[in-house]
């Protein structure tokens, strides 16, 4: 017999947000995290209204507002002359339209806000899952330290290298997307002379793009400098990167881009991987969530947002159907098409953002200026969606 628990494997943004949604729906939740302490990489993350609405409903608004930045706009810009092709509002107007704000966070601040809302004892650290046994009426989880736990439902929120995914569907390596990213955080005092608007900027150029925005109560500017590269031969997926190499990769770009890169003390190089859409996320009493289910390129800034949506949808399905395989099948049916669409759009943005100068780039720029793909109304399909508002069956 089980004790009616939902076990979440992985204490990243997706796992912790799912634990909060599940607790709010009345479930007894445990999160099992392999690391000795919860932690996130030193980088920024954008959280759009489709995800912030869920976090606000969970009571997190005060914690998020403590260090979260609410940008006023997003700019799509030309790499060389800096011309804005499209400026779309992200501030009060967007919040009024979708009932929740657009945020920029330091990842550690977001993770701390999520963890701080969970009761002590919910997250169990130093628990690396190595095995799962679905007995039909419950699941036994086995950990590397020899321990075990019982649950009625198990959720693999264990990231792009997911062990749960491997246990369910066999090994399959994520694919290198042909992109690497230099990431950095610059103290804002060093960039005062640039008089930056409290906005997100996406500079697009041949074979690369550069994104920057404020994080950590607007004390730091986060940047992600993405370049195309044929292969990633390193063993590790992340490496210290040389600032000089990042500057060389953006030779000839607008002085603002180069000034931001040049002001950083330390930069890290990330190989960007994604996965092909999985035909199936669930088996019996076990399912996947977040990057474990639908790892995507970050070019829609929706990987974490979709994991937060997953948790809300999963809680709604478990309430409606009861904690069993039917609820997991329902969850997957509701979530897969949307997550797959975002995987596809993220991948398409690699081509779109990196067009060489020429007719296709001119057509893209004209479309951005004329039809405004980031304008408030155009984002309704993404930002107005409420994953917990599921139809009764
Ligand atoms: C450059 C870059 C920029 C991005 N920008 C954005 C953005 O602006 N907005 C956005 O929404 N998304 C963004 N993303 C995507 C986002 O970071 C991810 O989609 C999100 O963090 C995934 O969360 P997760 O909880 O699914 O997985 P993870 O954050 O990877 O968490 C998985 C957790 O599981 C644990 N774990 C792994 N294996 C085990 C095991 N066997 N047992 C127990 N625990 C285990 C890990 O230690 C980890 O804590 C970006 C990604 C990149 C690379």
Overview of the molecule:
The chain is α/β, with parallel strands linked by helices. The chain has a single domain (5-173, 275-383), classed as FAD/NAD(P)-binding domain (3-Layer(bba) Sandwich). Helices cover 35% and strands 26% of the residues. It is built from 13 helices and 18 strands. The strands form 4 sheets. Strands 5-4-13-14-15-12-17-16 form an 8-stranded mixed beta sheet, sandwiched between helices. Strand 4 (73-78) and strand 5 form a beta hairpin. Helix 2 (49-57) crosses helix 10. The model has no long low-confidence stretch (mean pLDDT 95). Bound molecules: flavin-adenine dinucleotide (FAD). Flavin-adenine dinucleotide is lined by residues 9-15, 32-35, 45-46, 127-129, 157-159, 163, 181, 224, 270, 272, 290-292, 298, 301-305, 307.
Summarize it.
This protein has 393 residues and is of the alpha/beta class. The chain contains 13 helices and 18 strands. It has a single domain (5-173, 275-383), classed as FAD/NAD(P)-binding domain.
Keywords:
single chain, eight-stranded mixed β-sheet, alpha/beta, globular, 393 residues, binds flavin-adenine dinucleotide, 13 helices
The CATH architecture category equals: 3-Layer(bba) Sandwich
The kinds of small molecule bound in this structure are: flavin-adenine dinucleotide
Number of helices: 13
**Which ranges are low-confidence, i.e. pLDDT below 50, for 5 or more consecutive residues?**
none
Can you identify the CATH class? Alpha Beta
Shape by Cα distribution: globular
Taken as a percent bin, the fraction of beta residues is 25-35%
What does the largest sheet look like?
8 strands, mixed
Quote the distance from N terminus to C terminus. Answer: 28 Å
Q: What is the CATH homologous superfamily assignment?
A: FAD/NAD(P)-binding domain
Give the beta-strand count: 18
Q: Can you tell me the CATH topology?
A: FAD/NAD(P)-binding domain
Average pLDDT over all residues: 95
